[in-house]
Design goal:
The complex is a heterodimer of chains A (415) and B (83). Chain A is globular, with a radius of gyration of 22 Å. In chain A, strands 4-10-9-8-7-5-6 form a seven-stranded mixed beta sheet, with helices on both faces. Chain A has helices at 5-20, 66-79, 87-91, 94-107, 118-129, 144-151, 165-174, 198-207, 230-233, 263-272, 274-277, 284-299, 302-320, 340-352, 382-398, 406-413; strands at residues 29-30, 37-41, 49-53, 111-115, 135-139, 156-160, 181-186, 210-215, 242-246, 257-261, 332-338, 355-356, 358-360, 370-375. Chain A folds into two domains: 21-53 and 301-413, Aspartate Aminotransferase, domain 1, CATH 3.90.1150.10; 66-299, 3-Layer(aba) Sandwich (Aspartate Aminotransferase, domain 2), CATH 3.40.640.10. Chain A contains 16 helices and 14 strands. With 415 residues, chain A is of the alpha/beta class. With 83 residues, chain B is an all-alpha fold. Chain B has one domain (3-81): Non-ribosomal Peptide Synthetase Peptidyl Carrier Protein, Chain A (Orthogonal Bundle), CATH 1.10.1200. Helices cover 47% and strands 0% of the residues of chain B. Chain B contains three helices and no strands. Chain B has helices at 3-16, 42-53, 70-82. In chain B, α1 packs across α3. In chain B, 18% of the residues are buried. The chains are: A alpha/beta (415), B mainly alpha (83). The A-B interface holds A 140, 147, 150, 156-159, 161-162, 171, 362-363, 366-367 and B 16, 18, 34-35, 38, 40-41, 43-44, 47. Pyridoxal-5'-phosphate (PLP) binds at residues 117-119, 122, 143, 145, 186, 190, 215, 217-218, 246, 248, 257 of chain A.
């Protein structure tokens, strides 16, 4: 047997090391559809606990929407369960193309290509388009999937300090000798919840002859007046050369992602992006479900408006009782704690109080920037948020951090 | 401190620290294992050294270990300057 006892021991030791370093991740089993309140089995084997969910990407509350479920069922009946093929062999149904057109319209781009996920879109897009005469200049806080995609591409890589336009400009000047430059950023940053300054980025791109790439996974469907994304919010619709986004968050939450943008760039992805070429097509019921999502959000901004109200309300509540929040206007609201253990301990106590939110710390966020990230949803009602606040206040008092500044929290708990 | 150390240290501070970041860095501070420079952003440091000192550092030599402290980087640069 090639998997020897020694190999087993070595790998087991690696797992143990993760545990000891506090990096071990444990799944929590949810015994219900995704929603504002969920039933959770944690730790495994324990009885179910009903908690308010403050950590889903279910921004528009569509993950368990009856109309979306109905449309998915219709898709299942009409188009079958699965495609058993990659797109370019026999995995493209008329509805796949229909959804791509719908996305193009919604995002205000020229063309769109679906991928199995946005992780896959980000993994494939750069390699498909750029070569070693080009340079990719990325914000230092872009999502891990973009980092992976950049690693797979042989164009030169560079980074700029998070949202630092002066630093970005220096880099653009520095790389004028390349064939093409591309500025790479998230629209909404998933850990901090702040928005990229796309208006300034587009201006710099025009000044220094650069393309612009935006991953709008945490924005599509709700950021901007009609929810088209960060480019709508910043007034630069039509000026982003490449957008990637996911169907796995606000837009129904099932799965699937896309590359959307300039016709030729999307065509190059269709010809060359490996996760598109070599992975199965998105299942038909997800496509028809997503088409329903676009019907719902194009007809009314009610859901995104409610999400915005919830966000403002939640931020106001937390601020009033004296929590230190990261500034921003997205439904990602990070409560800053700076110390990793404090973040873990508080998240554990919140859970005991019936509030499910996650503590994040190095290496997921920079060292000394530990936090509890809360995420709002249009599925939340005021009573959910009021109850969540009660728990936050109780736990905040226990750790004596209410009304304390960054300096004071660090003085008490360390970084 | 000699000149090269200072130049590299200055670059690291300017390139990797945020304005409101008062982290103290000296020539033996672990940059990568210390979470100050992520391995992905290390590329700009390598480019800076190559331009500034007119050397070529092969990717195989630009490992996170070698780039972990300014002291190590100085040793590396000197090795290429001698070649
Ligand atoms: C910014 C960003 N991009 C991409 C992804 C990946 O999306 P998907 O779940 O569709 O692979 C995520 C999800 O975690 C994300 O936050």
């Amino acid at each position: 047997m090639a998997y020897s006892n020694l190999a087993r021991e070595v790998f087991q030791q690696e797992v143990n090391n993760l545990r000891e370093a506090g990096l071990f991740k444990e799944e929590r089993h949810i015994h219900a559809p995704q929603d504002a309140e969920i039933e959770v089995e944690f730790p495994a084997g324990s009885s179910l606990k009903r908690v308010i969910n403050m950590c889903a990407n279910n921004y528009l509350g569509l993950s368990n929407n009856p109309e979306v479920i109905g449309a998915a069922k219709d898709g299942l009946n009409q188009y079958g369960y699965g495609m058993s093929s990659v797109r370019f062999i026999c995995g493209t149904q008329n509805i796949h193309r229909e959804l791509e057109k719908r996305l193009t319209e919604f995002l205000g781009t020229e063309d769109t290509l679906l991928f199995p996920s946005c992780m896959d879109a980000n993994a494939g897009v750069f390699e498909a388009i750029l070569n070693d005469q080009d340079v990719m200049i990325a914000d230092r806080l872009v999502h891990a999937s973009i980092v992976d995609g950049m690693r797979l591409c042989n164009a030169m890589r560079d980074t700029f300090k998070h949202s630092d336009m002066g630093h970005l400009e220096e880099k653009l000047q520095d790389h004028q000798d390349k064939r093409y430059r591309i500025i790479i950023t998230d629209g909404v940053f998933s850990m901090d919840g702040d928005l990229a300054r796309l208006d300034e980025i587009v201006e710099l791109a025009e000044k220094y002859d650069s393309m612009v790439f935006v991953d709008d996974s945490h924005a599509s469907g709700f950021i901007g007046k009609t929810g088209r994304g960060t480019h709508e919010h910043c007034g630069v619709l039509g000026k982003i050369d490449l957008i990637t986004t996911t169907l796995g968050k606000a837009l129904g939450g099932a799965s699937g992602g896309c590359v959307s943008g300039r016709t030729e760039l999307v065509e190059l992805c269709r010809q060359r992006a490996r996760p598109y070429l070599f992975s199965n097509a998105v299942a038909p019921m997800i496509i028809t479900g997503a088409l329903k999502v676009f019907e719902l959000i194009s007809g009314s901004t009610e859901r995104r408006d409610k999400l915005e109200e919830n966000t403002i309300y939640w931020r106001r509540l937390l601020t009033e009782v004296g929590f230190d929040l990261k500034k921003g206007e997205s439904p990602i609201v990070p409560v800053m704690l700076y110390n990793a253990k404090l973040a873990q301990d508080m998240a554990r106590d919140l859970y005991a109080e019936g509030i499910y939110a996650i503590g994040f710390f190095f290496p997921v966020v920079p060292r000394g920037q530990a936090r509890i990230r809360t995420q709002l949803s249009a599925a939340h009602e005021k009573h959910h948020l009021d109850k969540a606040l009660e728990a936050f206040v109780k736990v905040g008092k226990k750790f004596d951090i209410l009304g304390k500044s960054k300096k004071e929290i660090i003085a008490k708990y360390g970084m | 401190m000699d000149d090269m150390k200072q130049v590299i240290l200055d670059y690291v501070k300017r390139e990797y620290l945020e304005e409101d970041d008062d982290t103290e860095i000296d020539e033996s501070t672990p940059l990568i294992t210390g979470g100050i420079v992520d391995s992905f952003s290390m590329v700009s440091l390598k480019r800076f050294l190559e331009k500034k000192y007119g050397i070529q550092i092969p990717d195989a030599d630009a490992s996170p270990q070698v780039f972990d402290t300014v002291n190590n980087i100085v040793v590396l640069v000197n090795r290429y300057l001698e070649k």
